[in-house]
Amino acid sequence: MSTPIHIVGGGMAGSEAAWQIAEAGQPVVLHEMRPVTGTFAHQTDGLAELVCSNSFRSDDSEQNAVGLLHWEMRAAGGLIMHTADRHSLPAGGALAVDREAFSEEVTERLNAHPNVTIERGEITGLPPESWGSTIIATGPLTSQALAQEILAATGEDALAFFDAIAPIVYADSVDMEKAWFQSRYDKGETEEDRTAYLNCPIDRQQYEAFLDALLAAEKTEFKDWEQDTPYFEGCLPVEVMAERGRETLRYGPMKPVGLTNPHNPTVKAHAIVQLRRDNALGTLFNIVGFQTKMKYAAQTQVLRMIPGLENAEFARLGGIHRNTFINSPRLLDEQLRMKSRPDLRFAGQITGVEGYVESAAMGLLAGRLAAAEALGNALRPPPPTTAMGALVTHITGGAEAKTFQPMNVNFGLFPAVEGLKGGRRGRKDRYKAYTDRAKQDFTAWLGQHAAA
Q1: 300 and 341 part of one domain
Q2: Using CA atoms, how far apart are residues 137 and 17, in angstroms rounded to an integer?
Q3: Other CB atoms closer than 10 Å to residue 281's CB: what's the count?
Q4: What is the three-class DSSP state of 351?
Q5: Which of 80, 305, 412, 419 is most exposed, with minimal Cβ within 10 Å?
């Protein structure tokens, strides 16, 4: 048997990378520190545990960049997308999953694969060169010891941002005489999808009182060395959004549009809080967009001011954690290899992509690149006209290294399609042209890989 490829980290990226390598016929050793060494954010020792939200965001592969990334990962035989589809929950036009069932199946599939060995225990230093080809996919909660070793090896200053977690509510504790089920604009193909969200209406007076309490609530205090760490703009704590202006939440997660209150259909709510199903049983719902750094006692008091949540019971309260990432444009080549140590690849959030799907996509790509290299086949990354290619191009040179910050996939990363109208009016045709071109180019790339 050939020398195994090692992967450090059993999150979304590491699990997907392990699957791709194993499916290519190569042995892989997946190192996961839990449960030997835990984190404050993880609840289980399962692989690919979803720590923050349970949403993979939009599943629209024609008009949305993340939906296109879903399509590409399915086309590439991705374990993460296959498992997400098997454990999907009604979520309108989004893809949400039962987080426990999802993690359990990913763990079972990798445990059962004959080419995969899972080793539990913390890797506290950079893997030795004697390991050979290695992928570091330790994610946003990289252990402090390993993070320090990586930073020492790269010669970089610490790069980090804060990421936040939304609270989860027991469904049977929501007052259904005030709340109702409906997806915004009744979006979705099935009745389940069209009623995937719980909605809590708020009038103007309640909204103003809620804002005052939110802003005054006791917050988590950061350590001295964390004071200058920024937030990721795509996952701001709800109180940070509120600090930007009293109308900010009404134009963000609490926008009162596309919904009609069946309890009082003639009255338009001033704001609406939505909760999205978090498990297949429908017993748990997370509060959409309500990532928070409020202390636990303050959370229960403030969130119970929301009509319908006066007696809410929480399966998990919100929290905040530090997310470490490297300066990939400066440190990595197009193969996701560390320029100063080509035996090391990086994948997932530690590379500066943001989001479950983006992290898993970089794991998929790192796994395929590592497997091809082990087999003696030259494999280029997908072209930048594809979602996966646009992401890897951005983090390995497309972004400005001096100002590099985590990025979700978006059409702004794609090369323009010539001859199309710009602006909002031309957006639908432009996005369709992007996705049509991407699907064609990604299919061609897969064909080249299969022939190699």
Answers
A1: no
A2: 9
A3: 12
A4: helix
A5: 419
Note whether 411 and 294 are same-domain residues.
Answer: no
389 is in an annotated binding site: no
- Token output for 362: 């970089």
| 365 and 338 in a common domain | yes
User: Which of 322, 342, 361 finishes a domain?
Assistant: 322
Neighbours of 94 (CB within 10 A): 24
Segment 177-225, tens digit of pLDDT: 999 999 999 998 899 889 999 999 999 999 999 999 999 999 876 554 3
Instruction: Determine contact, residues 132/6, Cβ cutoff 8 Å.
Output: yes
pTM of the model: 0.74
β-sheet bridge partners, residue 320: 164
* Segments forming the whole domain that contains residue 411: 5-159+325-451
Q: Is residue 363 helix, strand or coil?
A: helix
DSSP class of residue 105?
A: H
End-of-domain residue from the set 282, 303, 322: 322
Q: Are residues 338 and 315 in the same domain?
A: no
d(CA 169, CA 146): 35
- Per-residue model confidence as pLDDT tens digits over 72-85: 999 999 999 999 99
Has 367 been labeled as part of a binding site?
Answer: no
CA 308 to chain centre: 29
Q: Which of 373, 388, 347, 368 is nearest to 22 (CA)?
A: 368
Give the residue from 162, 152, 160, 161 showing the smallest Cα distance to 331: 152
Give 358's strand partners.
none
Confirm whether residue 14 is marked as ligand binding: yes
